[in-house]
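To: structure subgroup
Subject: Chain for Friday's discussion

All,

I'm putting the inputs and outputs inline so they're searchable in the archive.
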Amino acid sequence: MNKFTLFLFVFFVGYFSVFSQNKRQALVDVLDLIEKQFNINFSYADKDISDILIIYKKEDNLKAILNSLEKQTQLRFNKLNNEFITISKLKDRENHFKFQKLEEVVISNYLTSGIYKNNTGSITIKPKEFGILPGLIEPDVLQTIKSLPGVLSADETISNINIRGGTHDQNLLLYDGIKMYQSGHFFGLISVFNPYLTKNVSVYKNGTSAKYGDGVSSVIDMQLSDSLSQKSKGGLGINLINVDGFTSLPLSEKTELQVAARRSVTDLINTPTYNAYFKRVFQDSDLTNKDDASISKNEDFYFYDLSLKFLYDISKKDKLRFNFINIYNALNYEEQSIMNSINESSKSELKQKSLASGLSYQHNWNNKLSTYAQLYYSNYDLDATNYDILNNQRLIQENKVIDAGFKLETNYSLSKYINLNTGFQFSEIGISNLEDVNNPLFRRYIKRVIRSYASYIETNYLSKNKSTLLKLGVRDNYYKKFNIHIVEPRLHISQQFLEHFRVEISGEYKSQSTSQTIDLQKDFLGIEKRRWVLANNTTIPIIKSKQVSLGVTYNKNKLLISAEGYIKKVDGITTRSQGFLNQYQFINAIGSYQVKGVDFLINKQFNNIFSTWLSYSYSSNLYTFSTLNKGKEFPNNVDINHVINFASAYTLKDLKIGLGLNWHSGKPYTIPLKNKPIFDNGINYQSPNSSRLNNYLRVDFSTTYQFKLNNNKAIIGASIWNIINKKNTLDSYYLMNNETVSKVENTSLGFTPNISFRLNF
């Protein structure tokens, strides 16, 4: 539900009439009054309640109020529990119940407003309903995901999100059904996905639907708004990093255009936020590493993104959709040196860009059967040109991904309580890598292509009283190049008991043919070191995973307590995909990791004004490589055993304040032997990952205030990341320099302020 958008509607029709008891009032405002009176939450689609005016009489009996509303509006008010009520049109209930997919919200305000837990096991984030999280003044999609239990970024970036011990490339990122291969602006500090067109973000850590391939760690499914709004709306915003704007523009009764754009201001002005980001991202890179004979300066960095979606409701049964996204990061800098009394200079550059588009068509055959088809194209391109004046050397590196295919899905409602979902998917993925050196002459170009075919079937059952949900599916992936079938069963069971308790059991088998590797830490100027590669079924296997989890939640009187334990095993990983910085950095080996853990959350809300939560995650994450460490287990590079997040959010009318603490135990790393650090012209290391960095600690703050500006709504915000300016070490490794061993440390973001202003109309 998008209260923000609905309030805008109220301004246009006459805000002065909201509080009148004797006149008709907008339903959205009445719902807000009821929520505050009875400490409940309503969930509904904007289009279902827009333009509805009612006569409201305040009563102490919630049931009587809901009965009155049903009679006046022809809407159905479905009470899920003591805190949550869904609203739907009666005709939709009768004719289109198949679209519900039997998914129900079981926990609202999972951390803050706009974050929900569903009976399918997924977490849903609705950016337009987003409350506030510490350190965030805007609803950054991926930064929000990092706040969930079991989710961590070991290096603070959203281009390296570790979910239950996995690497970032093991997360499947879908943008309106299209797989994306780039997630971060500013090389990992800002999400590339504009939140103001994103309607829902569904996060699955286990028990995913059989329709999802890839992503052995998680699925992050971003869906744009898919319904016509009938009214123009938009917004403009600016902060110390970028400016942005969006609009939803009805072109006719059946068509609408949604557009969002964003561009950095970093190449125009220097701000405290930019300086902090620059120091964090470009440390230990070619841009900041200088010697006596060479200096780098005059850097030029900027980014932008453009999103577009066209909606066409051909008829009541037919929908056509087209979407497009373009993402771009660019860095240029000049290197100068004095050679033989001559001042020489050259320009190095790094470009990272993605382009994706999709065309989809949905047809509703009757009130039980619908079909959905999509054609899509996704492209990722990473290019770097690096000049070394002192050695008269030029290095060109390229990493390109082209992913194209189509999907066909059928949904059939066997009854009001059982759905059947089947589908077929085809994809062709081509990935190429180029390295070209002029001195000495060297060129290496590798390109691989894989065609995969997948079919799946899944059934969902939801009991009449909605206390039991069973989701059971199976997926078959066929890789033609290797003549391999991989069968993947999926399971999720959700059962309510003793009224306020719910138990969940999830399990899945998954696989993926793409991964990211690191050849050298100085690849791509040392900034975007990871490159995409395809499985070849020999040195790079298809990655396979299996996972099972058991969770219990208690939810009553706005007190939520949940705990979930899990075991996950991932096979087919390579040393190059893990980013080793020790004796295994240049070793090619195939192995696995197994992670066991538990995620705990307690959240208490007080009268829709104050909310506080504490999450704790424990995990043990161990590698096994048969050819390394004598085949013995050793800690994973992201084996962070303990993670604690403690935060509070305060809302008083139009003022929101968030304050939070993030702490986790140290990340593993490897140090040289103290008595004999050098052996055979190389570093003589101790046992792999046998040492730990110091514990990580960060405190964040954010606040926003909404006010009326003429006939529009404006929001100002301020945030501080790392208030205490704690210097946290994110990575530590060693290099050989002139027959001596030197230590390199990468540190976290320091004290980083940001301010924003936004106008919605």
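Points worth raising on Friday:
Residues 3-14 form the longest helix (12 residues).
Helices lie at 3-14, 27-38, 46-49, 62-73, 90-95, 141-145, 272-281.

D.
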